[in-house]
Design a protein that fits this description.
The chain has about 725 residues and is of the alpha+beta class. The strands form six sheets. The chain has an eight-stranded antiparallel beta sheet, with no helix packed on it. Strands 6, 11, 13, 14, 15, 18 and 19 form a seven-stranded antiparallel beta sheet that branches. Strands 1-2-3-4-5 form a five-stranded antiparallel beta sheet, with no helix packed on it. A hairpin with a 3-residue loop joins strand 23 and strand 24 (about 680-685).
């Protein structure tokens, strides 16, 4: 009798347990709601049929699960990737249609992986310290685990107990053990790789009702909270949502953060995961979207690929979940409209419904001037984005003064980048990688990423003695960050950010203040760049402008090397730059103008008779043609204490249809500099009017009152700076 009662009790418990599935992507009620929405909302309908068609073509076929042997871009790599996407989509189809043919497709593939995975060793093409089994690196295995865990959850109740055990023990356990034992140090990192790994183990834990897996995913292998998903939420984001590795990697990590959080929220709502750290995941998504160009491309600082935009799958998944838990605002809808697809879950339903009722005619995300801090406590530098204009006339200057950004960070302290009219003007090269293209080193990061793209000369900041910041040491760079001195950004005509860095070089301090000024006479903002370097000894200071466009003019005679070129230097990225021309700078004003699409851009620089100018281009020492051949304009000064004053103009127009150009010349006529211990004064004559900036050198308090004497008159101002244009103080 006791045995019968125990058997009945176990059946009841099992029945209750199984009824909890699916829980990771959506539950049964949400699936019913999505089904209803499919016939009502066009975007959901289109997304459904697109995914169903992609799955249907594989039904009743013997799908290959090959032994791993190829690097990224090779057959086995791409096949395992397409398999996990197929399983995920087929699992969704099973939940939405109830047709067992979709569940069977997932089951059959997972059974094949259950036979394959236990015998796998390190991938034969592994080159990293953290090799994968199915793929060349463990990160891709983690991707596999996330998607297959979601697929398993979708078909959980279709499987027999024996089938579940076969898959759990054969397909999942070898991967989980590999991550949490063999690659324990990797799994416990605070890094985007480990975010994927923890999400994969945690999702599989929820899908297979394995609390041990979930606990390791949340708290690390030792379950002490020093690592794992919660530590990653604490350590990778600043309080305002800036992701330590930069916006490109926010895009990549946002999927496992949101998908695992969604599974946690569905199974343990009392955890309030989406409210954690004052809605840190909402801040992360919104912050990432603010760090995009008009075409949705993520700003390319750190190891970034320029073609990645917010229409990528990772952002689609995250945005739809965010819509469910945080609600839909106009910004998310504008992005969703450009994504032109939704996920087949409750969030996708909400977005599709909102878009079906949307009457707005806005084309672009609501970009604004914004500042992000860096570091878990928000005290490790940051990024300021100064913007003016709107829609396709938006100008955005990015001032980056973050911490190193770990292995994907670049040596680019006090770096600036400029976007205008949706075009990249002063660029960050990003990374040297042709992702998943087998011919280019198996789709991995190419050696030129570290040797060139991460080096300081590739960025729009100062390189001292042809040596990169922190001597190119990531470990050293990780110890330090710049310090913001003062700033004011927003909708005002004067936006300014001033930052100091005295750690990138042992005996050189760098101070850079960027002003974005909307003058009443100019359609476009004017950028004034004050860059001071101080040292007790003499150095060579190179300030490059990595511009994109066609050279129009330089106001000095230069020697052009058309038949015989040498490199600019021999190391730290200089060896990749061809020296195409050089000149002695015009005194006291050097001007450089280039054309990008239909607009002109000028850099006007205060120079002395010892300043040298270089026109260079990437591509030297590149026998495999891995690099883009982009131009670089470089100002070089030598001495101990030097001040660079540069005015960046966006002006004029070239109409290729009418063959007319207007405003093609710089409006800057003169730049003067006066420096004392207490103050720096810059006077710029532009279109015969005077622009004057006075900046305090030793008091950054916003309430401090100053009285500055210049040209027989006294300027009274409060705060660390003042800007006067045409005898009127700007605010």
């Amino acid at each position: 009798m006791k045995k019968i009662l125990l058997s009945v009790l176990l059946l009841i418990i099992n029945s209750l347990l199984y009824s909890q599935h699916p829980v990771c992507v959506m539950n049964k009620n949400e699936a019913d709601a999505v089904n209803t929405g499919i016939v009502k909302y066009p975007l959901l309908t289109e997304s459904y049929h697109e995914i169903r068609s992609s799955v249907d073509e594989w039904l009743n076929k013997d799908i290959d699960v090959p032994f791993p042997k190829d690097p990224a871009g090779g057959y086995t790599h791409d096949k395992h990737k397409s398999n996990y996407i197929l399983m995920y989509n087929s699992g969704l189809m099973y939940q939405l249609t109830g047709d067992v043919k979709y569940a069977k497709l997932v089951k059959d593939l997972l059974i094949k992986y259950a036979a394959l995975n236990p015998g796998l060793k390190n991938h034969p093409q592994a080159t990293s310290a953290y090799p994968g089994h199915l793929f060349w690196q463990a990160l891709n295995d983690a991707n596999w685990l996330v998607y297959t865990g979601l697929a398993f959850d979708c078909i959980h109740n279709y499987l027999t107990p024996a089938e579940r055990k076969t898959i759990e023990d054969g397909a999942f356990k070898p991967e989980v053990d590999f991550f949490t034992h063999d690659l324990k140090s990797w799994f416990n990192l605070i890094h985007n790789h480990a975010v994927w790994a923890c999400a994969g183990v945690g999702i599989v834990g929820i899908a297979t009702d394995n609390k041990d897996y979930v606990d390791m995913a949340l708290k690390g292998t030792e379950k002490d909270g020093k690592s794992g998903f919660m530590a990653q939420l604490n350590g990778l984001f600043s309080p305002d949502g800036y992701y330590n590795e930069g916006p490109y990697y926010t895009r990549y990590a946002i999927l496992p953060f949101y998908v695992f959080a969604n599974a946690l929220n569905n199974t343990n709502p009392a955890m309030h995961i989406f409210q954690y750290r004052d809605r840190i995941l909402q801040k992360a998504l919104n912050g990432a979207l603010q760090q995009t160009n008009l075409n949705g491309a993520f700003y390319s600082y750190n190891d970034a690929l320029k073609e990645k935009t917010f229409v990528s799958n990772e952002v689609v998944e995250a945005l739809d979940i965010a819509a469910k838990v945080y609600g839909v605002d106009n910004g998310l809808l504008l992005v969703a409209k450009q994504q032109a697809r939704v996920t087949l879950n409750a969030g996708g339903l909400i977005v599709a419904e909102a878009l079906s009722k949307d009457k707005t005619t806005d084309l672009y995300y609501p970009y604004k001037s914004i500042e992000f801090t860096d570091g878990a406590k928000g005290d490790e530098g940051g990024v300021s984005i100064l913007r003016a204009g709107k829609n396709d006339h938006l100008s955005s200057l990015i001032y980056k003064y973050t911490s190193q950004g770990m292995a994907h960070g670049h040596f680019d302290k006090l770096n600036i980048n400029l976007y205008d009219n949706g075009n990249e003007i002063l660029q960050d090269y990003g990374a040297v990688r042709y992702i998943n293209i087998e011919q280019k080193w198996g789709g991995r990061y190419l050696p030129e990423t570290k040797a060139f793209a991460q080096q300081t000369i590739v960025h729009n900041t100062i390189t001292v003695d042809e040596t990169s910041h922190f001597n190119g040491s990531e470990q050293e760079g990780d110890k330090y960050h710049p310090d913001k001195l003062f700033g004011s950004i927003g909708d005002n005509p004067v936006q300014v950010v001033s930052v100091k860095d005295d750690k990138a070089y042992s005996d050189v301090s760098m101070y850079r203040t960027i002003y974005m000024l909307q003058l009443p006479d100019n359609a476009k903002p004017l950028i004034v760049d004050l860059f001071k370097v101080k040292s007790a000894t003499n150095h060579q200071y190179d300030l490059p402008f990595n511009y994109l466009g066609t050279l129009m003019s330089v106001n000095t005679k230069y020697k052009s090397y058309t038949t015989n070129q040498t490199t600019l230097g021999t190391k730290n990225g200089y060896q990749y730059l061809w020296k195409e021309a050089e000149a002695k700078a015009a005194y006291p004003l050097s001007q450089f103008t280039f054309l990008n699409n239909s607009s002109f851009y000028s850099v006007s620089s205060l120079t002395d008779d010892s300043t040298r100018l270089f026109l260079t281009r990437t591509g030297a020492n590149d026998p495999n043609f891995n690099l883009r051949h982009d131009p670089v304009y470089i100002l070089r000064k030598k001495g101990d204490n030097k001040t660079f004053v540069n005015v960046i103009e966006m002006h004029g127009n070239f109409n290729s249809v009418t063959e007319m150009s207007t405003g093609s010349y710089s409006s800057v006529q003169q730049i003067d500099l006066a420096e004392s211990t207490d103050y720096t004064e810059i006077n710029i004559t532009i279109n015969h009017k005077k622009l004057q900036i006075v900046q305090c050198n030793n008091n950054n308090e916003i309430s401090a009152k100053h009285s500055y004497r210049t040209n027989d008159k006294t300027i009274e101002f409060t705060g660390p700076y003042t800007v006067v244009y045409d005898n009127t103080m700007m605010k």
